[in-house]
Structure formats: C-alpha cells, structure tokens
Amino acid sequence: SAVGHDYISSKVIPGASAPSKRLRIELSNLASGGGHGMILGGARTGRTQAARAAVTVSGRTPVELCATELNAEDEAQLFASMDQPATTIILRDVQDLTPAIQQRLSSCLNNGAAATVMCTATPSLVQASLDGGFERELFLRLSQSEVRVPSLAARRADLVQWIDHLHLARTPDHGGSTSRGPLQFTGEGIE
User: Fold this and answer.
1) Which of 54, 90, 92, 158 sits at a 20 to 30 Å CA gap from 36?
2) What are the b/e assignments for 52-74, b being 16+ CB within 10 Å?
3) Using one digit for the tens of pLDDT, what is the confidence trace for 19-39?
4) Which residues lie closer than 8 Å to 167 by C-beta, 6 or more apart?
5) CB neighbour list of residue 44: distance below 8 Å, 6 or more residues apart
6) How confident is the model at residue 3 (pLDDT cuts 50, 70, 90)?
C-alpha cells in the first residue's frame, strides 16, 4: 500500500488491471517520498499524466516544462524554480536536454536545490546514461525513485476506462472544450 500521502485514485489513473493498480501505488509512494523521481515509459503510455498525478498528491506546487521545447524563457524558469521550496519541477522528455543544461541542472542538484525534480523519459535514457549520451551523475540523482509506466498492451483491459477518462476531460461539463455525446464501443472498435 501507499505510504504517507493520499493514494492516487482510479479517477486520475484509470484501470482495474494489476499493472494499473501497481502504477497507482508506485506513484503514491513516489509522491510521499519527497525526493527526485524518474517516470519511465514508452511513447503515449501516460508518463506525463503519471507525473502530474504524483505531484498533485504530494501537495507541492508544480512547474511543468518540456525538454524538447525548452527555450531561453523556459530555461530561466527552470533554474529560478530550483530555489523554490515546496515546488516540484515536472521535466518532460528529460532525455532531450542539451549537455549544457544537463551539466547546469546537475550542479544545481548537487548544491542542494530546494525544489524537487520529477522527470519523464523513455526507457532508452537508462542506456544513454551508461553509454555517455546523458550525464550519468544527473541520471543517478534524478532516478533516486523510479517508476516504470506499463505499456498499453500490459493494460489492455483498461483501455475503455482510459478512453472514457480522456473523453470526459474534453467535455464542457468536466472542464474540456468540446461538446460530445456519450461514446459507444464495440468489441471490434476496441481491437
């Protein structure tokens, strides 16, 4: 069971399958740990949603940035946020950080930055850190707590719940912007 903080509910990370339940428990534990974390998973597996859920449960203020799209303004926000206690920086696609930013981020973390960093990345980052394609010390610091998001194939039984979840997120009654009726699924459509 989760330690410390609230458990991440199936309303946030849908699914009743064993992999989805395990993911919610691991994210809850990550949130309660208070340290840096790495959320690894393939493309379109829900890494970012998992990071957002963990930060929400932690009660910390999120600052979300994408390494792939990091411009000078975002870089300034990243390093200004490092000094903010009770802040967690969600750094999406950390494998795409430039070597210069990797070194600067590593230096901030080594010097006792007040903020925690929660990164999302593809599993290839692990090998890149071993091969020298990503700063090893930074990788070790960011992966103090690691959560692996299961593939969609492993969570196949949960796909209808995920589709409903994403559909509701886009309807006006639930904060979305489009008006859609209820979805109807056939077995063939899900396959």
Assistant:
1) 158
2) bbbbbbbebebbebebeebeeee
3) 999 999 999 999 888 889 999
4) 180, 183
5) 152
6) very low
